[in-house]
Structures are given as C-alpha cells and as structure tokens.
Design goal:
heterodimer, A: alpha/beta, Rossmann fold, five-stranded parallel beta sheet, 5 helices, 18% strand, globular, B: alpha+beta, Beta-Lactamase, Helix Hairpins, Heat Shock Protein 90, six-stranded antiparallel beta sheet, five-stranded mixed beta sheet, 11 helices, elongated
C-alpha cells in the first residue's frame, strides 16, 4: 500500500480520481491547488505525487520546484498530468524531473495502470519513465 | 632702387630729348614689357579664380561623396538627415543653420529631425503644422524651391514670418523640397542672420543631393513599415497558435470528465444511483463543451461585426436578480450580496446579451473567489449610464494583466495560471462595446477583483414625449 497525493483544481476530475482510485489499496489525498498540495505532501509524506500542470496559486511546475528544494522530498517521484498538447510543455515537464508526463484526456484505467507502474518501479531500479 | 634708376634714365632721356630722338627699339621694348606685365597680371588673376573655382568644386565633390558615403548602409531617417546636413554645411556660410524637416503624411505636418549650424538648438523640436500659403504652393504643388537671398527685399516675407515667427530673424532663407517618387518626403530649410547664406549655384546641387536623400529616406521608411508589419504578423501568428493551444487545453478538461465517467459506467459494477450521478457529470461536461463552442462562435461573430442586437428596454436589476438566482445552486459556497439602486432606469439593450455579461462575470467571481467568500453585486446610476460592478475576494489579477484578461489572444504569460479559457471576459467587453458602454477591471493580487460594466440608459419617457412633441409644437 502506498500513499499518493493528487493535485487537481478541476472538481469533476478530482471526483473522478477519487472514484477511480478507490478500487486500489492505496491511501489517496486530493488537493485543489499546488500550495494546498505542498502542505498535504509535507503532512502525509507520500510515496508518489500526481499533479496537474495548470492550477491557481502554485502550478505543477512550481510545485515540482518546491519539492526539489526540500531535501525530504527531492526523491519523491512526480507524475505530471497536463491538458496541454504542446511538445515544449511535455519536454519541460521531463526537464523539471517528472518521472512521467501524461496527457489529458486520460482514461481512469490508464491512469491507474501508470500509477501502478511508477510504484512498481520504485521497488525495481529499472524504471520506465515512458 | 629700381624705380630711382628708372627715373634717372628717364630724366636723362628727357634731357636728351631736346637734342636726340628716342631710340625706337627702346620704345618698342618698353611697350612689350608693359604688355607682358599686364598679361602676367591677368594670368595670375585668372589662375587665382580657377583655383578658387576648383576649390569650390572640390568642396562640392567632397560634400557629394560624404553624403553619398553616408547613405550607404541601413540608416534611420535622423541619421540620413544628419549626414546630409553635415555635407550641406560645408558649402554654406558659416553663420547659416540648416535643418531637415520630414513630412508626416498622416498628420500633414513638417517635423524637424536634424539641424546643423549655430542655431541648430532652436530647431531640434521644431515642427510646422500649417505651411504659409506661398510656401505650400511652392513646395506641395510645384515642388519648387523658395530662394530668399535677402529677406528684406522679399515681398512674401511679412506673411511668411507671421506664420513662422521662429524664422523672423533670418536675413536669408532657402527652402528646398525633398521629393522621392513624386512624393514630398520633406524639406531642407536653410536660414541665416546674414544675407546670401547660400551661393545660388549650390541650390541645384542641393536639389540633386536632396533627391537622393529623399530616395534613401523613402526606402528607410518603407523598410521600417515592412519590419513593423512583419513583427505584427509574427506576434499575431504566435498569438493564434497560443490561442489554439489554450482552446485545446480547455476542451481536454471536460473531455477527461466525459471519458472517465463513461469508462466507469462501462467497466465497473455501479449502483443505479451512481450511474445516474455519473451520467449527470457527463452531461455537465458536455454542456461545458457546448458553452465553449458557443462562446467561440459568439466571439467570432461579434469580432467580425456579424452579431446584431435585439434592442429593447431592459431592467438591469431584474437581469441581475435572475442571473444570481440561476447561479446560486452552483455556487452555494459563495454568499451573494446585492446592492442595487431600486430606482435605476431601464437601459436600451439586448436582454440575452446583457444576461450573458452578468452570468460571465458572476461565474468568474465564483471561480476565482476564495471558498466561502462573499460576492457583492452593485448597481447604480452614473451620468447617462447604468454602472454595474461585481466584486469577489480571491486570487486577484496582477496589474499588468488587468487589460489583457479582456483580450482574446492576449490571455497568455501573466494570466496563464488563471485557468479557464477566458473567453468570458472578451465576450463581456465586446457586448459592452456593442451597447456603447464599457467594461474594465480593478484588482489586487490575493485580495480580489472588481469587474465593472456600463450601459447607456434608454431615452426616458419624458425625452421621448419631448421629441415627439417638438414637431407639432413648431
């Protein structure tokens, strides 16, 4: 069982993530923006963070930078979820250290599978970062 | 010494004249000497003149080559003008001042872009909005130069100085038109406190050089215009592609909901209640997509002037109250306070479009207001206008983006973190414009924003009856 923090500002997608992840054994936390997400991460010490890119207050990139700056969270893997289709955004996500960049729209079965693959990678060193 | 000797010889000769006739050979020789002397003097004078003329030609050639040299390479109009004036100064009286005025086609005015000479300082910010009649005819119509080597003897001088008092102290004035491709590009003004500041021989030369300079200026201006247009096109092209990416971003979010919830219904064992609920979520996202498409089409129609308003008298208070009632079930976490002037008169407008303005502003306030924070809707009469404002307490907008949020293509950079496609605000502004009103925003980051719009009041019943009564009364 792993602890996962999701950061997502869209209420519909928050709800969707909650429902999609309830069939997994993991502890799931959902924050409505990057700043709330950062607080939640500091409190819950998750094994994985899955964040949207475009969010108020603190966006996905800023959240990743904040995690990099805190020694305790430098190694927490981050999945970046974005509705942007621009190649530059996807590349930027990788450059900032996301282990995986996923494009919206994404099916929930697919999201679950990707989350599991990253969690499995944490156990084996051969991490496929897509 | 030599003169004394000659005198002595002469007196001897005079003395001798009474006794012996002068030697004709000597006389001939003396005449030849005198002739040769005179010739030598003439030659010397001619040589001096030729030397002076050659020096003048050399100066002119130097000026031509200096100006021509300066025109090679990409230059800005003031640089071209300065290079020309430096050349001109070399053939001018040292007390003369030359200035280069550029003709602004749009403003129909001459504006000084460079000046050289002792009074150059007076002409750096010099401009002439209206040319005196004589000068206008000469320059604009005939493209001829005005040559006043002595202004005290010029009949036009009083009229000219009345119109251009800065030139009043001039004792000589020369104005040479600069024409390129049959277009007046500007004019060269030469003014001096002395008469005859310019050798009239040089006028033709200045005209010729002026012709080339005008051509160079024309090219420089064309290049500048083209570069400007090019930069604008690039900006527009980038804005359009950014807009396309923002639009696709906005479509993908509801699509994620539709895809996700339909997948859940298809793949999971759900209760009937859950299925109903998720179908409702799918429906909400489908409506969101529909609104997006409608907004985009509306914007297009308004921007291209294809949107017509169905004008009637509209009670804005009623429009606001209805919009708030419609929205309240969706925004229960935001208490809404209405401060509406009960006696506010009706406006002339399109009820549906004005409802859209209020709805867009309200849903923005809900979206960006902190959870549980109050939204205040105010309405009051301004001079001839109904003034509505909607205040939220939330993330706010940085000052540099206050106007940008109303721009369709400009919602980039500083406003990128504010999610939502932001077609709502461009629509608000366009509808306000169509109503001859205004829409604007005030905001403080992390405090909140207030959006304002105004719509002119309908002509009151009294106005209408007055205008109806007028013809019968007359």
């Amino acid at each position: 069982m792993a602890t996962i923090v999701f950061c997502e500002d869209d209420p519909t997608i928050q709800k969707l993530i909650g429902i999609a992840m309830r069939s997994t054994p993991h502890r799931i936390f959902i924050a409505a923006d990057g700043a709330l997400g950062l607080e939640m991460i500091q409190r819950e010490q998750p094994d994985l963070v899955c964040t949207d890119l475009s969010m108020p207050v603190l966006d996905g990139f800023q959240l990743m930078d904040a995690l990099k700056a805190e020694a305790a969270f430098t190694d927490v893997p981050v999945i970046l979820l974005t509705a942007s289709a621009q190649r530059t955004t996807l590349d930027e996500g990788k450059r900032r250290g996301a282990v995986m960049v996923l494009s919206k729209p994404i099916g929930m079965a697919d999201l679950r599978a990707q989350v599991e693959s990253v969690l499995a990678g944490l156990l084996s060193p051969a991490l496929d970062s897509q | 010494m030599c003169g004394d000797a000659a005198l002595e010889v002469g007196s001897v000769a005079t003395k001798g004249a009474a006794f012996a006739p002068p030697d004709p050979n000597e006389l001939r020789a003396a005449r030849e000497i005198t002739k040769l002397r005179m010739r030598a003097r003439t030659l010397a004078t001619q040589t001096k003149r030729a030397e002076a003329a050659l020096q003048a030609r050399a100066a002119e050639l130097a000026m031509v080559s200096e100006v021509a040299g300066a025109l090679v390479g990409p230059l800005l109009p003031p640089e071209i003008a300065t290079a020309f004036l430096r050349g001109v100064a070399s053939v001018l009286h040292p007390e003369a001042t030359a200035m280069f005025l550029l003709y602004d086609q749009d403003r129909k005015a001459f504006r000084s872009i460079a000046a050289e000479g002792p009074d150059a300082g007076d002409f750096l910010d010099y401009s002439i909005a209206v040319l005196p009649h004589e000068l206008h005819t000469l320059l604009m119509d005939q493209r001829e130069a005005l040559l006043l080597p002595d202004t005290t003897k010029a009949a036009v001088w009083p009229d000219l100085t009345a119109a251009l008092p800065t030139l009043a102290t001039a004792r000589s004035l020369y104005v040479v038109p600069l024409v390129s491709r049959d277009r007046l590009v500007g004019a060269l003004f030469i003014r001096s406190g002395q008469p005859g500041a310019l050798d009239e021989r040089h006028v033709a030369l200045l005209r010729l050089m002026g012709h080339y300079v005008a051509g160079a200026l024309h090219s420089a201006q064309s290049v500048a215009v083209m570069e400007g247009a090019n930069a604008q096109l690039q900006h527009l092209s980038k804005a359009k592609s950014d807009f396309a990416s923002i639009v696709s971003h906005e479509f993908r979010t509801p699509l994620t909901g539709i895809q996700g919830f339909s997948e859940l219904i298809r793949d999971e064992d759900l209760s009937l209640e859950e299925i109903r609920e998720f179908a409702g979520d799918i429906n909400k996202d489908a409506q969101r997509l529909n609104r997006l498409i409608t907004d985009m089409l509306d914007l297009d129609r308004m921007e291209s002037g294809r949107m017509s308003l169905h004008l009637e008298e509209v009670d804005l208070n009623a429009v606001i109250t209805e919009a708030v009632a419609q929205l309240s079930p969706n925004g229960p976490t935001h208490p809404m306070r209405l401060e509406l002037e009960a006696t506010m008169a009706a406006v002339t407008g399109d009820r549906d479009k004005l409802t859209q303005v209020v709805t867009n502003l309200l849903s923005n306030a809900v979206k960006y207001g902190h959870e549980g924070s109050e939204i205040v809707i105010r309405g009051h009469s301004d001079v001839g206008m109904a003034h509505i404002s909607i205040e939220d307490h939330g993330v706010g907008i940085p000052p540099q983006a206050l106007d940008e949020v109303f721009e369709r293509y400009a919602r980039l950079g500083s406003t990128q973190h504010i999610q939502g496609i932001g077609l709502g605000l461009p629509i608000v502004r366009l509808i306000a414009d169509l109503h001859h009103g205004r829409a604007w925003a005030e905001s403080e980051v992390n405090v909140g924003s207030t959006f304002h719009f105004t719509v002119p009041f309908a002509r009151t019943a009294t106005d209408a009856s007055l205008s109806l009564a007028a013809p019968s009364g007359a």
